[in-house]
């Protein structure tokens, strides 16, 4: 279900964690390649662990969840990884001028409040540059609705961007977007896995005794 960046095996104490959602359907996939580049750059700049979630491996469980309302174990693990992360990278291929149905379905099964305040870097891949506006007219509004914080720079990679002529420009966009996400992740208070001491719980009997004394 999930894969981890080569230099991590999970969450290390005191380190931030970035979830990477990729909706590519083929293997190998240009969508996964872009997601890996964004993850590598952000992980390096933020000194964070990265966890990659391949939606193609969860397609059956996502469809079942849409019908039954209950996630299977692998999908539950993926949802938990995304909603507990300090930052999110989300990359989709362009289908019919928008994000893929698999990509949308995954975020449909996540609670609408679970990503509030989460820094997000959005990316997409397609055959031609004319589809690049999918980032602004489809993906950015989606995460705005979920009340996530989307970084200013979105990254689109067309077929020509993987050739030698477009590689330099693509690399520059990747670095700029990664720097923006890294800055937001670094500034965000730690979430799950932080070393903050848990708040002390006062027994109910003691609370009643304190109220009686005040009276």
Automatic annotation (TrEMBL):
Residues 17-162 form the NADPH-dependent FMN reductase-like domain. Keywords: Flavoprotein, FMN, Oxidoreductase. The keyword Oxidoreductase applies. InterPro entries: CE1759_FMN_reduct, Flavoprotein-like_sf, FMN_Rdtase-like_dom, NAD(P)H-dep_FMN_reductase. This is FMN reductase. The keyword Flavoprotein applies. Transmembrane segments: none annotated.
